[in-house]
Amino acid sequence: MARKLAGAALAPFRRKLLAWYRSAKRDLPWRRTRDPYRIWLAEIMLQQTRVAAVIPYYERFLDRFPTMESLAHASIESVLRLWSGLGYYSRARNLHRAAQEIVARHASQFPRDWDAALALPGIGRYTAAAILSIAYNERHAVLDGNVARVFARLDAIRGDLRAPRRWQALETRAQELLAQRAPGDWNQATMELGATVCLPKAPRCNACPVRPWCRAAALGIAEELPAARKKLRTVRVTLAAAVFLDPRGRTLVLRSNAAEAALFSRLWQFPAVEAGGDPRKALASHLKSEFGLRDLSFEPAGDSRHSVTFRQIRLAAFLVRVKSLPRVAGAKTPKLGDLHHLPISNATRKIAGQVRLLLSRRR
Ligand code: SF4
Fold first, then answer.
1. Using one digit for the tens of pLDDT, what is the confidence trace for 316-327?
2. Whole-model pTM?
3. Based on the number of CB atoms within 10 Å of its own CB, is 228 exposed (0-12), middle (13-18) or buried (19 or more)?
4. Which residue of 1, 21, 153, 215 sits with most ligand 1 atoms within 8 Å of its CB, as the best mutation to test the pocket?
5. Which of 220, 222, 241, 329 would bridge with 270, disulfide CB 3.0–4.6 Å?
6. Which of 173, 225, 163, 164 is nearest to 194 (CA)?
7. Residue 3 DSSP symbol
């Protein structure tokens, strides 16, 4: 059976994995550059988001903001607009704030120093290690869920990997295994192995370059590791939203407040309320109490589904036709068809889509 990787076995293990990475890696736009700005942007976009979804956003973003300065000097509205649809909008806000700090304090260069990188908004240990190793060849090992799974299988580690002491031990192990001469490629190789070969449910051990060193494969327990984590209970929520429409095709959107931030990410949204019972009644009462609006007529535009982390949300959209849009402080009144010019979340996009479908059926 494979022994725990150490000593003389480390060199051939590293050589094999690096050689595999260099020949088998996917050709991704952020792998064609060593520019720290571009690598940073890719790492932020890739947090919680699939590679295929990131590519078009990454390219559009760089067309519009090709340099650190151009991002730092842009308005947050224009940054959010380009991020619109990618989700987790705090990433875009932090990116923008960090770009301003980097221009002000680091001469427009992403800092090479570990503590300075970690001090920036939106940069955690994983992201700092990825950027510094890939852009500057600094010796910091990455550890996220994917990489932890690979190492847990290599060493046949049982139990919940996110338990603090186990995670700390994995961080130490990741640093031990790091190829000192090529930390950037090494980190990308471990990520690539986790993403394409050492898959969560069905690891492709027969195609794996490091199988000879893998204890889980030798023990026949690769698929059992890592141990499943306890899932958060799913919470079901109904959200009723009012899509106002005046005779000129204009609608009304607001900035979501802190309570709605999880769903609308503090972007522009239709007036909406969480409904415990009948969504139409809840919406009527919300519009009356919040904005003093009465005697509105609500046309149901159907439901759509949306999920945010552990919340499953039913979006109940209502078309509210009015002669003139209500005056609400801080609101915007774009044409319904022009809503995509504003930073909006996917939930708002779905609600608008439901109403547009209703209107197209009426024509
Ligand atoms: Fe993962 Fe299988 Fe490779 Fe081990 S041999 S690292 S379990 S893919």
1. 999 999 999 998
2. 0.80
3. exposed
4. 153
5. 241
6. 225
7. P
Output the CA 20–ligand 1 centroid distance in Å: 14
d(Cα 286, Cα 271) in Å, to the nearest integer? 9
Q: 87-108: per-residue pLDDT in tens? A: 889 999 999 999 999 999 999 9
Asked if 348 and 268 count as a contact pair (C-beta separation under 8 A), the reply is yes
Specify the ligand 1 atom closest to the Cα of 205: 2
Taking the C-alpha atoms of residue 93 and residue 88, their distance in angstroms, rounded to an integer, is 10
More confident residue, 215 or 258: 215
Q: Which residues are identified as catalytic?
A: 43
What confidence score (pLDDT) does residue 308 get?
79
HSE, CB side, 13 Å, CA atoms: give it for residue 179: 22
Coil/strand/helix, residue 303: strand
Q: Which helix (H) or strand (E) holds 309?
A: none
Q: Is the pLDDT of residue 259 over 60?
A: no
Q: Looking at ligand 1, which residue's alpha carbon is closest to its atom 1?
A: 198
Nearest to 34 by CA among 109, 98, 102: 109
d(CA 252, CA 326) in angstroms, rounded, equals 8
For the chain, how many helices (H) and strands (E)? 15, 6
Q: Reduced to 3 states, what is the DSSP secondary structure of residue 191?
A: helix
Note the pLDDT tens digit of each residue in 155-183. Answer: 999 999 999 899 999 999 999 999 999 99
Split at pLDDT 50, 70, 90, the class of 2 is: low
DSSP labels, 59-114: HHHHHH--SHHHHHTS-HHHHHHHHTTS--THHHHHHHHHHHHHHHHSTTS---SH
- For residue 131, the one-letter residue type is I
* Exposed / middle / buried, residue 234 (Cβ in 10 Å: 0-12, 13-18, 19+): exposed
Distance from Cα 178 to the centre of ligand 1, integer Å: 17
pLDDT value, residue 362? 74
Tell me which residue of 76, 80, 71 sits closest to 103, measured CA to CA.
Answer: 71
In the structure, which protein residues have their CB atom closer than 6 angstroms to any atom of ligand 1? 150, 153-154, 197-198, 203-205, 208, 210-211, 214, 216-217, 222
